């Protein structure tokens, strides 16, 4: 955690790791019953809510594609997620 005045803020790395875990558990290697968390280490509840809402919007666009051509395995889903040229039907970049 980085110290900022009297407050402690999570580093970008910690936030990225928490977001990556959510994407991993919901899309890359889906875990039954996994729920996107409320906290991502952002500096306010408002920004945590925005991160969660954005992830849920993204995941709702890509989750139906799990198991379809090119997204059958976790390796294929990871490759698609890392490919900046791939978009969902709604125009979201994976």
Structure description:
By secondary structure, the chain is mainly alpha-helical. The chain has one domain. It is built from three helices and two strands; from the N terminus they run ββααα. It has helices at 12-28, 45-62, 74-82, and strands at residues 2-4, 7-9. It has a two-stranded antiparallel ribbon. The longest helix has 18 residues, at 45-62. The protein is globular and about 40 Å long.
- Helix fraction by DSSP (H/I, runs of at least 4): 40-55%
Tell me the overall shape: globular
The overall strand count is 2
- The Cα radius of gyration reads 15 Å
User: In which order are the strands of the major sheet placed?
Assistant: 1-2
Please summarize the sheet with the most strands: 2 strands, antiparallel
Would you tell me the overall average pLDDT? 83
Order of helices and strands: EEHHH
The total count of helices amounts to: 3
Tell me what portion of residues adopts beta-strand conformation: 5-15%
Structural class of the secondary elements?
mainly alpha
Low-confidence spans: 1-8
Tally of distinct domains: 1
* CA(first)-CA(last) distance: 29 Å
């Amino acid at each position: 955690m980085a110290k900022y005045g009297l407050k402690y803020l999570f580093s970008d790395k910690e936030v990225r790791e928490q977001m990556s875990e959510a994407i991993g558990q919901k899309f890359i290697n889906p875990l039954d019953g996994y729920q996107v968390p409320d906290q991502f280490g952002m500096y306010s509840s408002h920004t945590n809510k925005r991160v969660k809402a954005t992830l849920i919007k993204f995941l709702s666009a890509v989750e139906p594609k799990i198991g379809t051509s090119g997204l059958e395995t976790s390796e294929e889903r990871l490759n698609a997620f890392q490919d900046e040229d791939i978009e969902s039907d709604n125009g979201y970049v994976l």
